[in-house]
Amino acid sequence: MTGPSATSSGSTTKTSRHGRSKSTSSYCHTTGTPAEPTSSTAANNTERSSGEEDEKDGGVPFFVNRTGFPIDTVTWERMWSHVTKVHPDGQEMVDKIRNATHLPKHPVPSVPNFKPSMSVPDWLHAVQNYMRNLQYNHTGTQFFEIKKTRPLSGLMETAREMIRESLPIKCLEAVILGIYLTNGLTSVERFPISFKTQFSGHHFHHVVLGVYCNGRYGTLGMSRRTDLMDRSLSFRTLSELVFDFEDSYRRYQHTMKKIKIGLYVPHNPHVFQPIEWNYLVINACRQGCEDMRKELEKHGRDMRMKHCFVSQSAETAIKRCNCANYIGSASNPTTYWFRTMVQKNV
């Protein structure tokens, strides 16, 4: 883990007054007890960061590292103080780690390399395994600040920082990293899927990266629970995929409240536009399964149609550009004709 005395590259961002955020990288609690209990006063005084959800995750805010790397002393000590409160062994465990003269070096997972011989499912499996090897972040401090309104190009820089630091991540960070690692796979379309559930009077948030390829849907992601993470490319429709997640939540006595589906994320990592996170919002507690299915299927068709339209428009633009280049080239006889027309003011 990168402490205040470590040397590491990475951009530095401004620190907020409290340095904590509500559910942007959401917890997937499946028990009734919040993982990071804090006082109600601290929760009320929590500052909100751009792009976060409207509800606290389980009624409990969590800390966010807003100062980049290396982690500053305030963020570092705050993290350990929180761990002391929530870990079963408390201060004894913290002292054992922090006062150790020698700690074994944690293995850094290798970034997967795409090979032309790999199939799409194999590559998605390799990406998911890489994120799983980074491990889910249980410290109560999110190491990478993710602002949903930030341009895609900026979020891709954060993804590169995740790879450099190789620290545990949460679900929202996994979505950004999944987008980055699949940018070169143009046959796969990516889009965010967000869930809001309720358990024991509290609301919980989670997000995964939906993937679509060759008429099949799946997901990439991170969670405390293995059945709330990735899904293979085996679902024929978007509704089948979403309902499968709902079934998993039901096994943990969570009630689905809202489902938010975004739009396809561009494969160009340099575009200066934010990700569309909430293009379709479904109120699951007010709509029946059939109505939800129809909305999800319509959204899936709309995304595919818009993608085809954009692709055709881009292809037409390229053809026009090539045509213009040909007309303007010196070797093209049409160039002489255009010049003659101009000279004669025809």
Automatic annotation (TrEMBL):
Location of region: Disordered: 1-63
Leader sequence residues: none
BP terms from Gene Ontology: regulation of angiogenesis
Composition-biased stretches (Low complexity): 1-14
Amino acid composition bias (Polar residues), ranges on this chain: 27-48
Domain of life of the native organism: Eukaryota
Active site: 171, 206, 223
One cellular component (GO) term of this entry: cytoplasm
Classification via PANTHER family: TUBULINYL-TYR CARBOXYPEPTIDASE 2, VASOHIBIN-1-LIKE ISOFORM X2
The protein, known as: Vasohibin 2
Organism whose genome encodes this protein: Cyprinus carpio carpio
